[in-house]
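Students often ask why we bother encoding 3D structure as a string. The short answer is that it lets us treat folding as translation between two languages. Here is a chain of 315 residues written in the first language.
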Amino acid sequence: MWFVGWKGASGFSARSTAEQVTQGLDGSSLTAIVTGASSGIGLETTRVLALRGVHVIMAVRNVETGTKVKDNILEQIPSAKVEVMQLDLSSMASVRKFASEYISSCLPLNLLINNAGIALAPFSLSQDNIELHFATNHLGHFLLTDLLLETMKNTSRESNTEGRIVNVASVGHDTVYPEGIRFDRINDQSGYTPFRGYGQSKLANILHANELARRLKEDGVDITANSLHPGIIATSITRHHRIVGGLVSLFGKFVLQNVEQGAATTCYVALHPQVKGVTGQYFMDSNLAKPTSLATDAELAKRLWDFSFKLTHPN
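And here it is in the second language, the structure alphabet:
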């Protein structure tokens, strides 16, 4: 159990916090984008990266909320380098606008942390008529990564520094989506449940990182791509499901990890020298872990890539 705090090979455990796993690390030469940076794990990830000197761009849906979070971080860490940009991952137009504005800013990009997500929402379609979990949790990040990849490649070459792409996924269970990803039924409401919609999108996060890692290796690019399970955390991500959200509110503080612990694996994979050169892997509790069997299906990962590319590049 997480609360026992067994340490893995990294020297960290499920009880380690984001500050602990980055203690003594200097990120002052790095620039990062963190999606979903105004609450939960994304907020804590932003705060701790800023604490370690990283220049963090907070990619958030609500700029007003993001600005308040930024101001709060600056009160705690006056030297922090934090900026806010608007991004709605459920809208491809918003993703393209964000990427265009970021590229126009001429900022470098060392770390891309694909953290934002929704969970257990009732069936609905995005602005692009795609099931909302799949659109927000996977497709938005797939497109964002694709559009910013050249900037990351240039940054890596010019700075001679390894770039890192981090997908915040989950552990999932093959029994939740035994058929893998039903490409022909992404928008099919029949048989839909919030758990299946969420589970399928999180499986896609892992497969995306795996296939991206393979392609980057093939190209000889000094950029890694990994995925992770942040732990079972009491955050606002369950707000769409009344029963689950209620149980989290009632019992979460007693049985779940806190946000400081939940952001630890993200910060570890993004910054720690132990992860240098490690790519196409899955992490949990700031240690290498074994994902589900579907998450290691290389053929499924390739099919997902092709499917996602066609959806995000229709012309």
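Translate back mentally: The beta strands are 31-35, 55-60, 81-86, 111-114, 163-168, 223-229, 282-284, 287-288. Keep this in mind for the problem set.
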